[in-house]
Amino acid sequence: MKFLAIRRGVILVAALWVVLFTAGGAKSAPTFNQLLIAPKGATPPKDFSFPSLKGKVGKLSEVKGKLVLLAFFATWCPLCNEEMPKLTRVYEKFKDKGLVVLAVSIDQAPASFVKLWAEKKKLTYPVLHDQKYSVRRTHNVRFVPTIYVLDRDLQLAAWTIGQANWEGKKATDLIERLLKAPSSASARSIKKTARLP
Fold first, then answer.
1. N or C: which end of the chain has fewer CB within 10 A?
2. Is residue 113 part of a domain?
3. CA separation (Å) from 124 to 49, 88, 101, 103, 143?
4. pLDDT in tens, 34-84
5. Strand pairing partners for 59?
6. How far apart are the C-alpha atoms of 9 and 14, rounded to whole Å?
7. Nearest C-alpha neighbor of 90 from the set 80, 100, 82, 104
């Protein structure tokens, strides 16, 4: 009798889950561990400012004109412990061509703790600290790591939740293509110059 009650409870929970996630009762489940290309006209991330681990305030808008890997992470996240050092290798490979990695920690721990963690992981790119985890609301960061690929105009080009093969062909081709593309401001300038005699 007790077994039947437990079995009915499990079936009820499973049925509720199916209703919520297939009938539109909740947002669709996210796709993990894949680099997804953003559709044209995707909503760009809002500007933000958070303190850096060096004590200065860093803003997203300061890196406009660069190709940006915007990475939201936490030191307690096992996948982040693997993914953030991978981004260091990508950064070192492409930084002279215009790539910037901008990482935002959502740790509630003090900045000094995050700084020690970043030093231990040998991160060479800027790390900002969102101690209040405000990006949950402003940038729809529900899971870590969440990494957005932003073009030179800070428009969303791709994203991943979880791990991605940043040194694989798909990611490398995307990064190289976006690095070759001028920003819209540069493109307008090139078109105007091209019309001059």
1. C
2. yes
3. 20, 6, 9, 11, 23
4. 888 888 888 888 888 888 888 888 889 999 999 999 999 999 999 999 999
5. 49
6. 9
7. 100
CB-based contacts of 105: which residues, under 8 Å, 6+ apart? 73, 74, 75, 114, 127, 128, 129, 130
Q: Give the span between the Cα atoms of 2 and 96, in whole angstroms.
A: 66
pTM over 0.90: no
Enter the tokens of residue 85.
């050092």
Q: Which residues contact 91 (CB under 8 A, 6 or more apart)?
A: 69, 99, 100, 101, 124, 125
Residue 177 lies in a domain: yes
Number of domains in the chain: 1
Q: How far is CA 27 from the centre of its chain?
A: 19
Return the CATH number at 144: 3.40.30.10
Per-residue pLDDT tens over the stretch 177-196? 999 988 764 443 333 333 32
